[in-house]
Specification:
Chain lengths: 393, 397
């Protein structure tokens, strides 16, 4: 239980699959409680005792199946089965008796579906549950009219309206959060890729520095190999008796730096185990812009300049940065000059050694992506005067 | 050892996260208010259709009007918009429950009791910790008090026993599940805000890193004089072409002087500009200031960056040493290589001491990038790690 609480507490750091797994586990706990509750509830319903036993055992088996699916990591299937369980339980509770709590159960069933935060699942299953709830009220609503009610029809209509509006509001919530998070994530992925490009440049420059200084890259350093090897064996001792078996993989990891890894991964003649390890380790190679290199560069930025936050810190659009027209044009000219003078591209040897040509800058300026930096007005001004830009900057 | 997860966060994140959140809070406030307005119409319609007394209709509708007016007031007050909208959010949360309770007391019947669930649904749109807490408490307490103190609300024609115990259990489950759901959702929302804010700052710092390494490689820094000289020529020709006097030359001169003089001297010399204007112009200064270089490099990489639907929310986008499906050996080796790299001198980062590494791994987001078992082995045995590495590398490469 403590582990579950800890996982909930740190749920933002879990992968999507792990979060789904956690949610199914939580729902299963609640479903067990509901199934157990069906036993005392059976004394109030209209079913015969054999049906009650059959239903309770059936739900218990359904929950076992959900747990089994979780155990074999089929989390999405487990989610579906947990939804079937709550839908079935709702059906059982409301069919056997006409109590107000039956109506509340429709909200509980919707809550379980909401809990998974999956718009398609909510749209389909949520609509089925809401639809059944509305139908149930139309058929049995007159048995749920309060004693203080002055108008039975309005009472029934109120039940139905509230259930439908509840469904619709949560649907709106799903759409709002989905669009926000998709937009945030889209921007994050795009920026990750741009940062990846800077890191690729930094890595290429580092390679040149090492080459120029006649040093060997760290992945060729024997002492480094030995240190990695020994620490890896040390960690592995905590997991298995034959701790040394990891040594072979450490050797393979450094060996991969001398090989065309992508070729190994694709080569069907190579054993599947070798390809599997090559594929997994390729994310951590040191001679390419791998995840490890990215993490290392990101880590080092913890020690870089720490200017104070200002409103324009993350603003890169010249049109928004400057109010004055002259400033806007002057900054545009500086940007052009920078692009035409500084090495911002990889050359054919993969080194950061190429400068953009005037034609390439024009292509960049008129592209859709460049609206992030300059306005249409600035582009038009540039196009009208591009000969001057080309000649004097 | 107690973790301090925020110890190594970039200091600029919180302020930027607030501005990101404000953007979405505005949108959510508008949506909530539209729903409240529609609900007001619906309630009015129901009350009229059952021939409620005018006094009751006016009472209910006035509550909606008051709530909407408060929202409008807070929304239109521009100063400190973020906190104003937050206050409006809390008022809304409590206000909606107040209206629901008033309706329940006006019409003490089971179907109207369900308006509490509607109140919950409306407030859930905000996805905010405090609002969620308020809403859950309001729902649970008002539901419980009504069930215990006002059982007549739940009495149904022809039924002796309303089985309140089942109602209490289902209400508890409803609140508990929704609390967990909101909690996880809000945590993820904050995570996304955090990630985006983080990558924005990370980008600036990675560009700085690039320039630092580039300077080591070339041994040169950007020479602004060449820029200003050419800009002067260009502006003269441009002014000639469009037939105006050279309005750029004074600013180019100012840019030149910005790297030579302090701000007081600049203000003395360029009396025609205010401090604010000079600060704005100084963003164009290219030798000392990073901004234009940053825009130059960033814009040069903007072309051809495409994001596919598959990549959004994909686990592969999160860089870590604990990818789902990776072999344990791979998780160990990748972390060990990373650790060893932190302990050797690099052109862009000096070797870090053991205590520093341990502190960062313990108190930063890097804690979550390593497999839990492996990082715990490190924390418990970091001195052994250190000794092994020292034996082999002796701090150098």
């Amino acid at each position: 239980m403590r582990a579950i609480f800890n996982r909930i507490k740190n749920s933002e750091f879990l992968t999507f699959n792990e979060v789904l797994r956690l949610k199914v586990a939580i729902v299963t706990v609640f479903l067990f409680a509901f199934t157990a509750l069906a036993i005392p509830q059976s004394t109030y319903n209209d079913f015969s005792w054999d049906i009650d036993i059959f239903v309770t055992v059936g739900f218990a088996l359904l929950l076992m199946l959900t747990i089994l699916l979780l155990a074999i990591n089929l989390n999405r299937w487990a989610m579906h089965f947990s939804i079937y369980s709550i839908a079935g339980l709702t059906l059982y509770y409301v069919s056997g008796s006409t109590q107000f709590y039956g109506y509340i159960l429709f909200f509980v069933a919707l809550t379980v579906i909401i809990f998974y935060q999956d718009i398609l699942t909510y749209l389909i299953y949520g609509m089925v549950v809401t639809g059944y709830g509305v139908l149930y009220i139309s058929q049995k609503g007159d048995l749920l009219v309060g004693i203080n009610s002055t108008n039975a029809d309005v009472s029934i209509l109120t039940y139905q309206t509230i259930l439908i509006v509840f469904y619709v509001i949560f649907l709106i919530q799903f759409i709002v959060s989905d669009s926000i998070y998709e937009k945030l994530n889209n921007e994050w992925v795009r920026m990750n890729k741009v940062v990846g490009k800077y890191q690729e440049f930094t890595l290429e420059n580092l390679k040149e520095i090492i080459e120029k200084n006649n040093k060997e890259p760290i992945y060729k350093n024997t002492s480094f190999h030995q240190a990695v090897n020994e620490i890896s064996i040390f960690i592995n001792e905590f997991f298995e008796e034959d701790a040394g078996s990891i040594a072979e993989l450490v050797e393979f990891y450094f060996f991969l730096h001398e090989q065309d890894v992508d070729k190994i991964i694709e080569d069907e003649k190579v054993s599947s185990l070798t390809r599997k390890y090559a594929s997994q380790l390729s994310k951590y190679l040191l001679n390419r812009k791998s995840e490890l290199v990215s993490i290392l560069f990101d880590f080092s930025t913890l020690f870089k300049g720490d200017d104070k936050y200002s409103e324009l810190r993350y603003e890169y659009n010249l049109d928004n940065m400057f109010d004055n027209k002259i400033d806007k044009l002057l900054s545009l000219s500086i940007l052009y000059k920078y692009l035409k003078s500084e090495c911002t591209q990889l050359d054919k040897y993969g080194k950061v050694n190429r400068i953009l040509t005037h034609e390439e800058i024009v292509e960049l300026f008129v592209s859709k992506e460049f609206r992030e930096f300059i306005s249409y007005e600035q582009v038009n001004f540039f196009l009208d005067n591009q000969e001057l830009y080309r000649e004097f900057l | 050892m107690i973790r301090q997860p925020g110890k190594y966060k970039y200091s600029q994140l919180e302020t930027f996260k607030e501005s990101l959140e404000l953007l979405h809070l505005k949108r959510k406030t508008i949506i909530v208010n539209i729903i409240i307005l529609l609900t007001a119409f619906m309630v009015g319609y129901f009350m009229i259709s059952i021939n409620s007394e005018t006094r009751d209709i006016l009472a209910a509708v006035s509550l909606f009007v008051i709530l909407l007016s408060i929202n409008l007031a807070f929304y239109s007050y521009d100063d400190d918009h973020y906190n104003n909208l937050k206050i409006a959010m809390y008022i809304n949360t409590l206000g909606i429950y107040t209206i629901a309770l008033v309706l329940i007391f006006l019409f003490p019947i089971p179907s109207v009791f369900a308006t509490l669930f509607l109140a919950y649904a409306i407030t859930s749109i905000y996805q905010d910790y405090k609002s969620m807490l308020l809403s859950n408490l309001a729902l649970f307490l008002s539901g419980l008090i009504l069930l215990i103190r006002y059982p007549n609300v739940f009495e149904i024609v022809g039924q002796q026993d309303s089985q309140r115990i089942f109602l209490i259990i289902f209400l508890s489950v409803f609140v508990l599940l929704l609390t967990l759901s909101s909690y996880i959702l809000i945590k993820r929302k904050n995570f996304f805000y955090n990630q985006l804010a983080h990558i924005k700052e990370c980008e600036i710092r990675n560009v700085e890193l690039f320039y630092e390494v580039d300077k080591i490689k070339t041994g040169k820094t950007l020479k602004s004089e060449e820029y200003y000289k050419e800009l002067s020529k260009f502006s003269t020709e441009l002014s000639k072409k469009i037939g105006i006097e050279n309005v750029f030359s004074r600013k180019i001169e100012l840019l030149r002087d910005l790297k030579k003089y302090n701000i007081n001297k600049i203000l003395e010399k360029y009396t025609e500009y205010s401090l604010e204007e000079i600060e704005m112009i100084s963003q164009m200064e290219i030798e000392v200031n990073q901004k234009m270089k940053m825009i130059g490099l960033k814009s040069s990489q903007s072309f051809g960056v495409e994001v596919t639907k598959k990549e959004i929310f994909s686990e592969t986008q999160f860089r870590s040493f604990k990818h789902f499906g990776d072999d344990r050996y791979v998780k160990i080796i990748s972390f060990v290589v990373f650790y060893c790299l932190l302990k050797v001198n690099k052109p862009y980062l000096k070797a870090l001491g053991e205590e520093k590494i341990k502190d960062i791994l313990m108190n930063s987001e890097y804690f979550y990038r390593v497999d839990k078992d492996i990082i715990n082995i490190y924390f418990e045995n970091n001195e052994v790690f250190d000794t092994i590495l020292e034996d082999h590398m002796e701090g150098s490469w």
